[in-house]
Design goal:
The complex is a heterodimer. Chain A is mainly β. Helix content of chain A is 0%, strand content 50%. Chain A has strands at 4-7, 10-13, 19-25, 31-37, 43-49, 56-57, 68-72, 75-80, 89-96, 104-105, 109-113. Chain B is globular and about 45 Å long. Chains A and B meet through strand 5 and strand 10 of A and strand 5, strand 9 and strand 10 of B.
Chain lengths: 114, 117
Amino acid sequence: SAVISQKPSRDICQRGTSLTIQCQVDSQVTMMFWYRQQPGQSLTLIATANQGSEATYESGFVIDKFPISRPNLTFSTLTVSNMSPEDSSIYLCSLRTEVFGKLFFGSGTQLSVL
Amino acid sequence: GQQVMQIPQYQHVQEGEDFTTYCNSSTTLSNIQWYKQRPGGHPVFLIQLVKSGEVKKQKRLTFQFGEAKKNSSLHITATQTTDVGTYFCAGPFDPNAGGTSYGKLTFGQGTILTVHP
């Protein structure tokens, strides 16, 4: 199984600022994803991070708000831009090694926006 | 839209009692996966079922996948305090059955299990 390092683990941010979350994997993987988990809720897919091209966003999520980079097969970042209290959530990077296979998750970033 | 529903939302049991959570999809799934998230932790993969009617066991946990590949259940026998957490089902919708989110996992809402010692 892959080892995923996600940071920061938590942050408290001011309204209007931006936060970049990093996800590093110890091996090359094709499929990387970013999920959001609002307090007490399920996991919602934000986007698929594509290596060398623009991310594929799910309905309700846009690139201007959640820009994603994936410069290579082991690293990705998610930025939460112009934050508001509604963005307070846990953000999780994840990866999959097979198209219909299981997901591995990073430890998550707990974001609180004041 | 394509949805995965999970019930109950919460379950409180005494240690030693059994627990079951149910998962229902609006569309046929290619497979069903189950994850456990401990309080303060991240989701961890438990198991994947692929075949219609499949049943798998992991010690005290029994997983079933329905004949129509649209529902699933997780049953825990004689719960222990270590079973505490949220259990999620998730599945990729079958593109051959009209699923439009190819390969993407859609998660159920989860069942929060608390176990009283």
